[in-house]
Amino acid sequence: MINLEKLENREFLEKSIHHLEATGFENIKADLEGYECPKSYLRKESGNRITPDIVAVKNGMKYFFDISLKSEKSRLLKTKWLFLDALSRMKSDRFRIITTRGHYKFTDKLLEEINLTNKEPIKI
User: Fold this and answer.
1) 61-68/54-58 β-pairing
2) Which domains does the chain have, with CATH numbers?
3) 58-74 confidence digits (pLDDT tens)
4) Is 57 helix (H, G, I), strand (E, B) or coil?
């Protein structure tokens, strides 16, 4: 999810964190009160900051999570996903997308457009 939408979808972000905690993830970082903020990456050409929604560790592996909700700014979302996917592959980490009912089709369409069809979204 892009920064502009984080305030609106705070509840779903909390629900996603609780789901990850229940499935064994630890050392969770998120842009929420009570959690450490994940590291941001600066995109030089545009000056935008890219921050994963959630970063967590499970079995010694680092996972980047991004929440997929319908958005008017799908281009920014695609850019963020491509960057996080490339970053995770460079460092032998994992990248996952979390979505919820009513947003499955939107998420699948975006993944297909950027050729990340190997990513199976986590459905909460």
Assistant:
1) antiparallel
2) 3-123 (3.40.1350)
3) 999 999 999 998 888 88
4) strand
Q: Is 49 within 8 Å of 41 (Cβ atoms)?
A: yes
Say how many C-beta atoms besides its own lie within 10 A of residue 97's C-beta: 23
Q: How far apart are CA 62 and CA 7, in angstroms?
A: 25
Length of the chain equals 124
Supply the pLDDT for residue 31.
85
Within 10 Å of residue 8's Cβ, how many Cβ atoms? Answer: 10
pLDDT in tens, 15-31: 999 999 999 999 999 98
Alpha-helix runs per DSSP H in the chain: 10-22, 74-90, 104-113
Contact 55, 65 (CB under 8 A): yes
Beta strands in 3-100 (DSSP E): 26-30, 41-42, 49-50, 54-58, 61-68, 94-99
